[in-house]
ABC transporter ATP-binding protein (Marivita lacus), 350 residues
Amino acid sequence: MSGVTLDTVIKRYGNTQVIHGIDLEVADGEFCVFVGPSGCGKSTLLRMVAGLEQTTEGTIRIGDRDVTRLDPSDRGVSMVFQTYALYPHMTVEENMGFGLKMTGHPKSEITTKVAEASRILKLDDYLKRKPKALSGGQRQRVAIGRAIVRGPEVFLFDEPLSNLDAELRVEMRVEIARLHKEIGATMIYVTHDQVEAMTLADKIVVLRAGRIEQVGAPMELYRDPDNRFVAGFIGSPSMNFLRGRVKGSEVVSNGLARPVPKTGAAQDGQDVLIGLRPEHLTVKPGASHRVELTESLGGVSYVHLIGPDGEKIIVEERGDHRSALGDQVDLGVDPAHLYLFDAKSELRLR
Ligand SMILES: Nc1ncnc2c1ncn2[C@@H]1O[C@H](COP(=O)(O)OP(=O)(O)OP(=O)(O)O)[C@@H](O)[C@H]1O
Ligand SMILES: [Mg+2]
């Protein structure tokens, strides 16, 4: 049993509180991703689990051990950082085994563990090379190898792919997913890339300004966000938001050609935000919106519209798109895929 439990965890630097009482349960073997905008506290929270930052208040447990006051080396965790910081004068093999050597493990054991990590990470051909003769992706694999040989109960990753170019990121993302399947350890992974979050996570934790906004499986957050922040953060391109007001059983918005049906909790007269994902919108013949830009990515195009009040709306078109710059069009809305939020609290109206 080596899940991670955070109980009312708080972090203060002097008088500045940056983590505001976080409760979280990461199950044994789970892949948990922390996402959120820059400065929201992802790294701080991860470093608190690692023991690299002191926890001001609250309790952190790994399995059934209270590790809140333990040294990093006694927690049974390994951390992989954005910058891989390998020893330049050591070979790949030596870099991976160095931690074990320092803690006095016998040579034969180190050799076995390095060989196992090398097999998992497909580094066999590079064991005798020095880091400078490796690509960025290979170097990051060595850094992950260094974490694997220590046999931790919990792996902690802080944006491990941010320094890689787009193609390598995709490749390494797949590698990390495979690694998790193969070794089955608990993993906590920090990223601000929501594609990484969606594809890797069993569970996503959306953070904002030191608080949890929502926790759930990727598709739960995508389909059923609790508030505007989560709705806007999960999904790419982001959900569109239009101002509207409930009138009877409908919601009226200048940004829509016609009213849309209201959902359960929305009250007559209430000011709301209507959330519409680009993939659930269509462009229809009409005159209410103007095409400002179309971005063709091949299989899909993103059509940027300007609404009657100057609102910007993105619509996803599949296949050969037909919208052209300057066209006047209407927005096609699917009432089955429509989210309402209170305009003030920004909470979802279900
Ligand atoms: N030593 C420190 N003293 C004071 N404030 C700090 C210190 N370290 C971090 N902070 C603050 O804590 C907050 C959270 O920082 P953190 O590094 O955890 O953010 P993050 O979510 O990892 O952001 P990013 O995506 O940019 O890496 C920030 O507002 C940061 O300014
Ligand atoms: Mg960070």
User: Anything to note?
Assistant: Residues 42-43 surround magnesium ion (ligand 2) (CB under 6 Å). The first helix runs from residue 42 to 50. The mean pLDDT is 94.
